[in-house]
Amino acid sequence: MPTPSRERLSLTKVPPKPRLRTNTGPSYLLRLGVLYIHPLRMKIVSELYMREMSPTHAHEDFGGDTSYGAMLKHFKTLEEHGWLRWVRQEQASSGSGRPHSLYRATELAVVDDETWEELPTSLQVAFTARTLQQLGERVGGSLADGAVDRREDRAFDCRSLALDARGWRAAMDALADCFHSHVQEQVDAKIRLEKSQEPGLLMTIALAGFPSPHPASSRGRPSDRMAGASGFLRLDDGTVPLSTRMAKVFGDPLNLEIVNVLEMEALPPSQLQARLGGASPRAYWRRCKALTELGWLVKATDADGSPGAYRAAGPQVFDDADIWSAVPEGAEKAESWPIFHEFCEKASNALRHGCNAQPVRHVTWCTFLLDEQGWKQVTRSLRACQDRLSRIATESQRRIEFGGDSASVIPATFFLAGFEDAMKWQDTQTIC
After folding, report:
1. Which residues, at least 6 apart from 317, have a Cβ–Cβ distance to it below 8 Å?
2. Could you tell me which residues come within 8 angstroms of residue 395 by beta carbon, excluding any fewer than 6 positions away?
């Protein structure tokens, strides 16, 4: 989720426009790699951003087939890399036995603008497709359950706007400000819930804004950005999860450099080693082989470069049916289904034409544990953002009409939603 700043989101009070993180360069990508390399680690951080938990509680609630020892190791690894912090010890409910160590997550796994630009195009598209799939599962499940339309004070809106460059930047600022306010509201709600001992309610919040294909291009073939892709790829091929495949690249600085360089030109491992250094020629050969097996590189043809050369795989293209496979059939019976169906179609079309892998766009969803006050604050923030986007579009249209530069118009899609979540507590996640 690209946002316009770098300072980390934390559990402490922050200024009105908090920045996302203070650490720069590859270190943040390395930390993201630690998180993404195993799906359970993202689950742990998502859960612990909403509540304190011990490894024992986590193992009981969502450990599944994972052993307690493996769960404890995940906790320790996440603590070592700054994703978790120890909070306090709590005596076991039985009153006997060893006390539990309680932890909280320190931040959300947010991919900001600067980090986004460090990623190869293929990873950008994969990130977006993965986020859309999980958003589809979340929204679709709540539509099928009737939870989306259960409360009249929910927010659920998809709209298309025509903006100029200035308006597009203002729209991205509006989404970023809205996202920051929701993160702060989760912090405040946790404090209130701890004092009141109320159970709270799960609310899923989705924010999306991305360029849409121009009408002429949307009727034709995908853009040149996507032309290099060969066929459709699976988000989960049943062997290595997509998140783990991605982490193998951005979680290793040298692998990331290799894929970025090979996006520009095809090279054999020996020339890569001469250019980048840091490892032996044989190590480069092994890395290129491994990245090829993971789908990020392909063997170059004779026309592409020297014998034995590799190049980065074309931008990943995912089947629409794969992206929205988790949306249950009962979802289309919901009152709000037409709104979400419109978003699904526009998001898929934008992804096929490369619009959803642009340097600046916003696609996030998160599930927070809120009290009633927090719910009202979030829905108020979403409606204020909708009003702000409407004003931005009006101002853009006025400038376009007076300036007469219709060729610079940016068609864009926006989706803003905040609704009661139908998933059980142990099924929650936060994805950015």
Report:
1. 125, 222, 226, 229, 231, 232, 233, 352
2. 167
Give the chain's radius of gyration (CA, Å): 22
What is the C-alpha separation between 155 and 123, in angstroms, rounded?
A: 31
Q: For 4-13, 19-28, 158-167, which range has the lowest pLDDT when averaged over its residues?
A: 4-13
Please give the average per-residue pLDDT across 84-106, as a whole number.
81
Q: What is the pTM of this model?
A: 0.82
Residues 6 or more apart whose CB falls under 8 angstroms from that of 422 comprise 141, 142, 144, 145, 146, 147
Picking from 364, 357, 359, 355, the residue whose alpha carbon sits closest to that of residue 413 is: 355
Q: List CB contacts of 407: < 8 A, sequence separation 6 or more.
A: none
Neighbours of 130 (CB within 10 A): 20
Give the span between the Cα atoms of 253 and 301, in whole angstroms: 26
169-209 pLDDT per residue, tens: 999 999 999 999 999 999 899 889 988 888 889 999 999 99
Contact 203, 423 (CB under 8 A): no
- How far apart CA 208 and CA 417 sit, in angstroms, is 9
Averaged pLDDT score across all residues of the chain: 84
Q: Which amino acid is at 293?
A: E
Q: Domain-by-domain residue ranges, the chain?
A: 26-106, 108-225+322-431, 237-312
∠ CA 393-114-104, nearest 5°, is: 100
Q: Do domains 26-106 and 237-312 have the same CATH topology?
A: yes
Using CB atoms within 10 A of its CB, is residue 77 exposed (0-12), middle (13-18) or buried (19+)? middle
Q: 403 φ, ψ to 5°? A: -80, -25
Residue 137: other Cβ atoms inside 10 A: 19
Q: What is the rounded distance in angstroms from the CA atom of residue 152 to the CA atom of residue 202? A: 16
Residue 44, C-beta contacts closer than 8 angstroms, at least 6 positions apart: 58, 74, 75, 78, 84, 105
CATH 3.40.1440.10 fits 237-312, yes or no: no
What type of residue sits at position 389? L
Could you tell me the maximum CA-CA distance found in the chain, to the nearest angstrom? 76
Q: How many CB atoms lie within 10 A of CB 11?
A: 17
Q: Say if CB 189 and CB 374 are below 8 A apart.
A: yes
Q: Which helix (H) or strand (E) holds 187?
A: helix 165-196
Q: Which CATH architecture describes the domain 26-106?
A: Orthogonal Bundle (1.10)
